[in-house]
Specification:
The structure is a homodimer of 194-residue chains. Chain A is of the alpha+beta class. Chain A has seven helices and seven strands. In chain A, the strands form two sheets. Chain A has a four-stranded antiparallel sheet. In chain A, strands 1-2 form a two-stranded antiparallel sheet. In chain A, helix 2 packs antiparallel against helix 5.
Protein backbone atom coordinates (compact mmCIF):
# COMPACT_ATOMS: atom_id res chain seq x y z
CA UNK A 1 0.00 0.00 0.00
CA UNK A 2 3.01 2.31 -0.19
CA UNK A 3 2.32 5.34 -2.29
CA UNK A 4 3.40 8.91 -2.82
CA UNK A 5 1.50 11.41 -0.75
CA UNK A 6 -0.43 13.92 -2.78
CA UNK A 7 1.62 16.94 -1.93
CA UNK A 8 5.30 17.45 -1.43
CA UNK A 9 6.42 14.26 -3.10
CA UNK A 10 7.14 12.66 0.26
CA UNK A 11 7.09 8.93 0.17
CA UNK A 12 4.63 7.87 2.82
CA UNK A 13 2.74 4.69 3.38
CA UNK A 14 -0.99 5.24 3.55
CA UNK A 15 -2.03 3.41 6.66
CA UNK A 16 -5.23 3.73 8.58
CA UNK A 17 -5.10 5.34 12.01
CA UNK A 18 -5.28 2.00 13.76
CA UNK A 19 -2.12 0.90 11.98
CA UNK A 20 -0.40 4.25 12.54
CA UNK A 21 -1.05 4.06 16.28
CA UNK A 22 0.51 0.62 16.33
CA UNK A 23 3.56 1.73 14.34
CA UNK A 24 4.24 4.76 16.56
CA UNK A 25 6.64 3.67 19.20
CA UNK A 26 9.08 5.26 21.63
CA UNK A 27 12.25 4.87 19.58
CA UNK A 28 15.38 4.55 21.69
CA UNK A 29 17.89 3.54 19.01
CA UNK A 30 18.64 5.66 15.97
CA UNK A 31 20.87 5.10 12.98
CA UNK A 32 23.09 7.78 11.46
CA UNK A 33 20.87 8.91 8.59
CA UNK A 34 19.99 12.60 8.82
CA UNK A 35 16.33 13.65 8.72
CA UNK A 36 15.30 15.38 5.49
CA UNK A 37 14.20 18.99 5.83
CA UNK A 38 10.96 18.30 3.95
CA UNK A 39 10.02 15.65 6.52
CA UNK A 40 10.68 18.04 9.38
CA UNK A 41 8.51 20.62 7.63
CA UNK A 42 5.68 18.15 7.24
CA UNK A 43 5.91 17.12 10.88
CA UNK A 44 5.78 20.73 12.01
CA UNK A 45 2.77 21.35 9.80
CA UNK A 46 0.92 18.51 11.55
CA UNK A 47 1.78 20.26 14.82
CA UNK A 48 0.69 23.64 13.55
CA UNK A 49 -2.78 22.30 12.79
CA UNK A 50 -3.23 20.62 16.17
CA UNK A 51 -6.23 21.64 18.27
CA UNK A 52 -5.85 23.40 21.63
CA UNK A 53 -8.09 24.84 24.34
CA UNK A 54 -9.68 28.03 22.97
CA UNK A 55 -7.34 27.62 19.97
CA UNK A 56 -4.56 29.06 22.16
CA UNK A 57 -1.74 27.18 20.41
CA UNK A 58 0.40 27.65 23.55
CA UNK A 59 3.60 26.23 22.12
CA UNK A 60 6.87 26.93 20.34
CA UNK A 61 9.19 24.40 18.78
CA UNK A 62 12.95 24.78 18.81
CA UNK A 63 14.36 22.27 16.32
CA UNK A 64 17.97 21.46 17.10
CA UNK A 65 20.02 19.86 14.33
CA UNK A 66 23.34 21.71 14.61
CA UNK A 67 25.60 18.82 15.69
CA UNK A 68 27.52 20.44 18.56
CA UNK A 69 24.46 22.07 20.07
CA UNK A 70 22.35 18.96 19.58
CA UNK A 71 24.94 16.91 21.50
CA UNK A 72 24.88 19.40 24.36
CA UNK A 73 21.08 19.46 24.43
CA UNK A 74 20.87 15.67 24.29
CA UNK A 75 23.32 15.69 27.19
CA UNK A 76 20.75 17.47 29.37
CA UNK A 77 18.48 14.40 29.16
CA UNK A 78 21.13 11.98 30.41
CA UNK A 79 21.05 11.69 34.19
CA UNK A 80 24.44 12.10 35.92
CA UNK A 81 24.14 8.82 37.79
CA UNK A 82 21.64 6.47 36.20
CA UNK A 83 22.52 7.53 32.66
CA UNK A 84 19.03 7.04 31.29
CA UNK A 85 18.04 8.64 28.00
CA UNK A 86 21.52 8.00 26.58
CA UNK A 87 19.82 7.16 23.28
CA UNK A 88 19.23 10.88 22.80
CA UNK A 89 22.93 11.27 22.06
CA UNK A 90 22.40 9.29 18.83
CA UNK A 91 19.33 11.15 17.62
CA UNK A 92 20.07 13.43 14.65
CA UNK A 93 17.39 15.91 15.71
CA UNK A 94 16.18 17.06 19.11
CA UNK A 95 13.08 19.21 19.45
CA UNK A 96 12.44 21.33 22.52
CA UNK A 97 8.73 21.98 23.05
CA UNK A 98 8.34 25.30 24.84
CA UNK A 99 5.08 26.22 26.60
CA UNK A 100 3.85 29.66 25.62
CA UNK A 101 1.22 31.62 27.58
CA UNK A 102 -2.28 30.40 26.67
CA UNK A 103 -4.99 32.85 25.63
CA UNK A 104 -6.67 34.73 28.48
CA UNK A 105 -9.84 32.67 27.96
CA UNK A 106 -7.98 29.38 28.32
CA UNK A 107 -6.05 30.76 31.29
CA UNK A 108 -9.15 32.03 33.12
CA UNK A 109 -11.10 28.86 32.31
CA UNK A 110 -8.20 26.82 33.67
CA UNK A 111 -8.07 28.89 36.86
CA UNK A 112 -11.82 28.66 37.48
CA UNK A 113 -11.91 24.93 36.82
CA UNK A 114 -8.49 24.27 38.39
CA UNK A 115 -7.04 22.57 35.31
CA UNK A 116 -3.89 23.31 33.35
CA UNK A 117 -5.36 23.20 29.88
CA UNK A 118 -2.04 24.16 28.32
CA UNK A 119 -0.43 20.91 29.49
CA UNK A 120 -3.14 18.90 27.74
CA UNK A 121 -2.49 21.04 24.67
CA UNK A 122 1.22 20.20 24.88
CA UNK A 123 0.34 16.49 25.02
CA UNK A 124 -1.88 16.82 21.95
CA UNK A 125 0.68 18.64 19.84
CA UNK A 126 3.55 16.37 20.90
CA UNK A 127 1.54 13.36 19.79
CA UNK A 128 0.82 15.00 16.44
CA UNK A 129 4.58 15.25 16.05
CA UNK A 130 5.19 11.61 16.90
CA UNK A 131 2.35 10.25 14.76
CA UNK A 132 3.36 12.27 11.72
CA UNK A 133 6.97 11.18 12.23
CA UNK A 134 5.89 7.52 12.41
CA UNK A 135 3.99 7.82 9.14
CA UNK A 136 7.12 9.19 7.49
CA UNK A 137 9.18 6.23 8.71
CA UNK A 138 10.84 8.17 11.51
CA UNK A 139 11.23 7.21 15.14
CA UNK A 140 10.62 9.61 18.00
CA UNK A 141 10.55 9.61 21.76
CA UNK A 142 9.00 12.11 24.16
CA UNK A 143 11.30 12.92 27.07
CA UNK A 144 10.06 14.61 30.22
CA UNK A 145 13.16 14.11 32.33
CA UNK A 146 16.00 16.55 31.58
CA UNK A 147 17.90 19.47 33.05
CA UNK A 148 15.46 22.17 32.04
CA UNK A 149 17.55 25.09 33.25
CA UNK A 150 20.54 23.99 31.20
CA UNK A 151 18.34 23.32 28.15
CA UNK A 152 16.90 26.82 28.51
CA UNK A 153 20.37 28.34 28.60
CA UNK A 154 21.60 26.36 25.59
CA UNK A 155 18.67 27.47 23.44
CA UNK A 156 18.40 31.03 24.80
CA UNK A 157 14.87 30.41 26.04
CA UNK A 158 13.69 33.19 28.38
CA UNK A 159 14.01 32.13 32.00
CA UNK A 160 10.28 32.36 32.76
CA UNK A 161 9.32 29.79 30.15
CA UNK A 162 8.86 26.08 30.72
CA UNK A 163 9.94 23.20 28.48
CA UNK A 164 7.41 20.46 29.29
CA UNK A 165 8.92 18.01 26.80
CA UNK A 166 11.81 17.32 24.51
CA UNK A 167 11.39 14.95 21.60
CA UNK A 168 14.15 12.97 19.91
CA UNK A 169 13.77 12.33 16.20
CA UNK A 170 15.55 10.20 13.65
CA UNK A 171 15.50 7.03 11.59
CA UNK A 172 15.12 3.98 13.81
CA UNK A 173 18.07 1.58 13.85
CA UNK A 174 15.66 -1.31 13.65
CA UNK A 175 12.24 -1.65 12.07
CA UNK A 176 11.24 -4.41 14.41
CA UNK A 177 8.00 -3.48 16.09
CA UNK A 178 7.80 -4.04 19.82
CA UNK A 179 4.64 -5.45 21.27
CA UNK A 180 2.68 -2.77 23.11
CA UNK A 181 2.01 -3.57 26.73
CA UNK A 182 -1.26 -2.00 27.78
CA UNK A 183 -4.08 -2.53 30.24
CA UNK A 184 -6.99 -4.57 28.88
CA UNK A 185 -10.00 -2.67 27.62
CA UNK A 186 -12.10 -3.85 30.57
CA UNK A 187 -9.84 -1.93 32.98
CA UNK A 188 -10.13 1.38 31.17
CA UNK A 189 -13.69 1.52 29.89
CA UNK A 190 -17.14 1.40 31.42
CA UNK A 191 -20.57 2.40 30.16
CA UNK A 192 -22.91 4.87 31.80
CA UNK A 193 -21.27 4.68 35.19
CA UNK A 194 -17.74 4.57 36.53
CA UNK B 1 -9.80 6.32 -1.97
CA UNK B 2 -12.51 4.93 0.31
CA UNK B 3 -11.91 1.34 1.25
CA UNK B 4 -12.69 -1.22 3.89
CA UNK B 5 -10.20 -1.34 6.72
CA UNK B 6 -8.44 -4.66 7.10
CA UNK B 7 -10.07 -5.71 10.32
CA UNK B 8 -13.54 -5.31 11.70
CA UNK B 9 -15.23 -4.52 8.40
CA UNK B 10 -15.44 -0.86 9.28
CA UNK B 11 -15.74 1.43 6.35
CA UNK B 12 -12.92 3.91 6.68
CA UNK B 13 -11.27 6.18 4.22
CA UNK B 14 -7.54 5.63 4.05
CA UNK B 15 -6.12 9.10 4.36
CA UNK B 16 -2.62 10.12 5.21
CA UNK B 17 -2.02 11.79 8.57
CA UNK B 18 -1.82 15.23 7.01
CA UNK B 19 -5.32 14.81 5.64
CA UNK B 20 -6.63 13.28 8.86
CA UNK B 21 -5.35 16.24 10.86
CA UNK B 22 -7.17 18.57 8.49
CA UNK B 23 -10.39 16.59 8.68
CA UNK B 24 -10.44 16.47 12.51
CA UNK B 25 -12.43 19.40 13.69
CA UNK B 26 -14.26 20.50 16.82
CA UNK B 27 -17.76 19.42 15.83
CA UNK B 28 -20.49 21.51 17.41
CA UNK B 29 -23.49 20.28 15.43
CA UNK B 30 -24.59 16.65 15.36
CA UNK B 31 -27.35 14.88 13.50
CA UNK B 32 -29.57 12.21 15.03
CA UNK B 33 -27.78 9.07 13.77
CA UNK B 34 -26.58 6.88 16.63
CA UNK B 35 -22.92 5.83 16.74
CA UNK B 36 -22.31 2.16 15.95
CA UNK B 37 -20.89 0.08 18.78
CA UNK B 38 -18.07 -1.21 16.52
CA UNK B 39 -16.94 2.36 15.86
CA UNK B 40 -16.88 3.13 19.57
CA UNK B 41 -14.84 -0.02 20.13
CA UNK B 42 -12.36 0.97 17.48
CA UNK B 43 -12.02 4.47 18.93
CA UNK B 44 -11.40 3.08 22.40
CA UNK B 45 -8.78 0.71 21.00
CA UNK B 46 -6.90 3.70 19.54
CA UNK B 47 -7.03 5.21 23.03
CA UNK B 48 -5.89 2.01 24.71
CA UNK B 49 -2.73 1.98 22.57
CA UNK B 50 -1.85 5.62 23.25
CA UNK B 51 1.54 6.34 24.82
CA UNK B 52 1.91 7.87 28.28
CA UNK B 53 4.70 8.89 30.65
CA UNK B 54 6.29 5.68 32.00
CA UNK B 55 3.43 3.82 30.29
CA UNK B 56 1.22 4.87 33.19
CA UNK B 57 -2.01 4.92 31.17
CA UNK B 58 -3.53 7.23 33.81
CA UNK B 59 -7.05 7.28 32.40
CA UNK B 60 -10.48 5.75 32.44
CA UNK B 61 -13.26 6.31 29.94
CA UNK B 62 -16.90 6.40 30.89
CA UNK B 63 -18.94 6.17 27.71
CA UNK B 64 -22.41 7.58 28.17
CA UNK B 65 -25.04 6.62 25.61
CA UNK B 66 -28.08 5.95 27.79
CA UNK B 67 -30.37 8.77 26.60
CA UNK B 68 -31.62 10.14 29.93
CA UNK B 69 -28.22 10.05 31.59
CA UNK B 70 -26.50 11.44 28.51
CA UNK B 71 -28.87 14.41 28.52
CA UNK B 72 -28.10 15.08 32.17
CA UNK B 73 -24.36 14.77 31.61
CA UNK B 74 -24.49 17.02 28.55
CA UNK B 75 -26.38 19.45 30.75
CA UNK B 76 -23.34 19.83 33.01
CA UNK B 77 -21.41 21.40 30.11
CA UNK B 78 -24.00 24.09 29.45
CA UNK B 79 -23.29 27.18 31.52
CA UNK B 80 -26.29 28.55 33.46
CA UNK B 81 -25.94 32.04 32.02
CA UNK B 82 -23.98 32.08 28.80
CA UNK B 83 -25.36 28.74 27.62
CA UNK B 84 -22.23 27.70 25.81
CA UNK B 85 -21.69 24.05 24.87
CA UNK B 86 -25.39 23.65 24.10
CA UNK B 87 -24.36 21.49 21.16
CA UNK B 88 -23.55 18.72 23.64
CA UNK B 89 -27.28 18.22 24.14
CA UNK B 90 -27.48 16.92 20.56
CA UNK B 91 -24.53 14.55 20.75
CA UNK B 92 -25.59 10.88 20.84
CA UNK B 93 -22.55 9.94 22.93
CA UNK B 94 -20.66 11.76 25.67
CA UNK B 95 -17.39 10.41 27.00
CA UNK B 96 -16.04 11.41 30.41
CA UNK B 97 -12.28 11.10 30.58
CA UNK B 98 -11.29 10.38 34.17
CA UNK B 99 -7.72 10.89 35.38
CA UNK B 100 -6.39 7.88 37.25
CA UNK B 101 -3.31 7.95 39.48
CA UNK B 102 -0.15 7.72 37.37
CA UNK B 103 2.55 5.15 38.16
CA UNK B 104 4.86 6.03 41.06
CA UNK B 105 7.69 6.66 38.60
CA UNK B 106 5.66 9.15 36.59
CA UNK B 107 4.40 10.74 39.81
CA UNK B 108 7.87 11.10 41.36
CA UNK B 109 9.37 12.30 38.07
CA UNK B 110 6.60 14.86 37.82
CA UNK B 111 7.18 16.04 41.39
CA UNK B 112 10.96 16.36 40.94
CA UNK B 113 10.63 18.17 37.64
CA UNK B 114 7.48 20.10 38.68
CA UNK B 115 5.39 18.89 35.73
CA UNK B 116 2.02 17.18 35.66
CA UNK B 117 2.84 14.44 33.21
CA UNK B 118 -0.59 12.91 33.60
CA UNK B 119 -2.26 15.98 32.07
CA UNK B 120 -0.07 15.65 28.98
CA UNK B 121 -1.06 11.98 28.87
CA UNK B 122 -4.72 12.99 28.99
CA UNK B 123 -4.15 15.35 26.04
CA UNK B 124 -2.48 12.57 24.06
CA UNK B 125 -5.21 10.02 24.64
CA UNK B 126 -8.03 12.50 24.03
CA UNK B 127 -6.50 13.36 20.67
CA UNK B 128 -6.25 9.67 19.78
CA UNK B 129 -9.99 9.52 20.39
CA UNK B 130 -10.73 12.53 18.20
CA UNK B 131 -8.43 11.47 15.34
CA UNK B 132 -9.79 7.93 15.23
CA UNK B 133 -13.33 9.32 15.33
CA UNK B 134 -12.54 11.64 12.42
CA UNK B 135 -11.23 8.77 10.32
CA UNK B 136 -14.48 6.90 10.94
CA UNK B 137 -16.53 9.86 9.75
CA UNK B 138 -17.51 10.99 13.23
CA UNK B 139 -17.33 14.42 14.75
CA UNK B 140 -16.04 15.09 18.25
CA UNK B 141 -15.33 17.99 20.54
CA UNK B 142 -13.17 18.16 23.65
CA UNK B 143 -14.85 20.10 26.44
CA UNK B 144 -12.95 21.37 29.45
CA UNK B 145 -15.66 23.60 30.89
CA UNK B 146 -18.37 21.73 32.81
CA UNK B 147 -19.75 21.18 36.31
CA UNK B 148 -17.30 18.51 37.36
CA UNK B 149 -18.89 17.79 40.71
CA UNK B 150 -22.27 17.15 39.13
CA UNK B 151 -20.72 14.99 36.39
CA UNK B 152 -18.94 12.98 39.07
CA UNK B 153 -22.20 12.39 40.90
CA UNK B 154 -24.10 11.40 37.76
CA UNK B 155 -21.50 8.79 36.81
CA UNK B 156 -20.70 7.58 40.35
CA UNK B 157 -17.07 8.63 40.00
CA UNK B 158 -15.26 8.62 43.37
CA UNK B 159 -15.04 12.11 44.80
CA UNK B 160 -11.22 12.24 44.79
CA UNK B 161 -10.95 11.76 41.03
CA UNK B 162 -10.71 14.49 38.43
CA UNK B 163 -12.40 14.63 35.03
CA UNK B 164 -10.02 16.77 32.97
CA UNK B 165 -12.14 16.50 29.82
CA UNK B 166 -15.42 15.41 28.39
CA UNK B 167 -15.71 14.61 24.71
CA UNK B 168 -18.88 14.75 22.64
CA UNK B 169 -19.20 12.25 19.81
CA UNK B 170 -21.58 11.75 16.92
CA UNK B 171 -22.16 12.14 13.23
CA UNK B 172 -21.66 15.73 12.14
CA UNK B 173 -24.74 17.50 10.82
CA UNK B 174 -22.65 18.97 8.03
CA UNK B 175 -19.60 17.66 6.21
CA UNK B 176 -18.44 21.13 5.34
CA UNK B 177 -14.89 21.58 6.51
CA UNK B 178 -14.10 24.80 8.29
CA UNK B 179 -10.86 26.54 7.51
CA UNK B 180 -8.40 26.12 10.37
CA UNK B 181 -7.17 29.37 11.82
CA UNK B 182 -3.64 28.93 13.11
CA UNK B 183 -0.50 30.94 13.71
CA UNK B 184 1.94 30.93 10.80
CA UNK B 185 4.84 28.49 10.97
CA UNK B 186 7.31 31.34 11.48
CA UNK B 187 5.68 32.20 14.83
CA UNK B 188 5.92 28.71 16.25
CA UNK B 189 9.21 27.34 14.95
CA UNK B 190 12.84 28.30 15.21
CA UNK B 191 16.07 26.40 14.61
CA UNK B 192 18.85 25.93 17.13
CA UNK B 193 17.82 28.80 19.33
CA UNK B 194 14.58 30.23 20.67
Amino acid sequence: MARFAQEGGLFTECMDFHKLVQVRDSCRKYDTRPVEKEKIDRILEACRLAPSACNSQPWKFVVVDEPGLRDQLAGTTVGPMLKFNRFCLQAPVMVALVAEPPSWLSKIGGKVKDKDFYLMDIGIVAEHLCLQAAELGLGSCMIGWFDEKKARQLLHIPSGKRIPLMISLGYPASDKQRKKIRKPMSEMVSYNRY
